[in-house]
Amino acid sequence: MTDVDRRGFLKTAMGAAVVSIAPGMFLFDMAHGGEAVSSRVRWGMLIDTASCTPGCNECVSACSRENGLSGGVAATDSQWIRKIEIKDISTGRAVSLPVMCQHCEHPPCVDVCPTAASFKRADGIVLVDRHLCIGCRYCMMACPYKARSFVHEPLQDQNPDVPRGKGTVEGCTLCVHRVDQGLKPACTEACPNQSILFGDLNDKTSEIAIKVRTVASTQVRADLRLNPGIRYQGL
Length: 235
Hints:
Shape: globular
Distance between the termini: 47 Å
Radius of gyration: 18 Å
Structural class: alpha+beta
CATH architecture: 2-Layer Sandwich
CATH class: Alpha Beta
Number of domains: 1
Helix content: 10-25%
Strand content: 15-25%
Number of strands: 12
């Protein structure tokens, strides 16, 4: 069986047998989305580093609360979004910016996954199907943004909308459970300076598409030609 055939078989098999891990929690349905998911949409973010305050971690805290993360910074703690500080040594200019999964158009995590657990939805959101993840962590090594975490310990008191599991890899989902309800990601709503603009990059009339066309923005590691859905203004 070829690799392509194997991936097709796995997807078909999982589509025929949705697994419930707890009352109301269906991993496969949540991850792969419903009929409303369309390639006409590409969700993304434009983050204004000029208004992102150094030392502010409201987006990180909101992400932890929304997704049931511990919020710790130990090596074994999952952190789907982190703040980093960048300084230009030639000018002394420093900026602070949140970094998360960049939801690439050509995600290397998907390319290296041996079980098709890492996948990209039609609307550009990159996710992990925990039914298929075997914890090999190839995707973590392939990600140039260090945006994925491995769940080392058993999990308690999970958010039913964000099922997680020991022994699997995870990362920012753009709060897909909120997006599918017409809401914005938690980090976007929590930012006190409204530095994180979320929207449909494919909709030419959307606020984010207009800003991307009219202001200078940067894709982190644009040289890799992954075409991330997360853009930064002011870098």
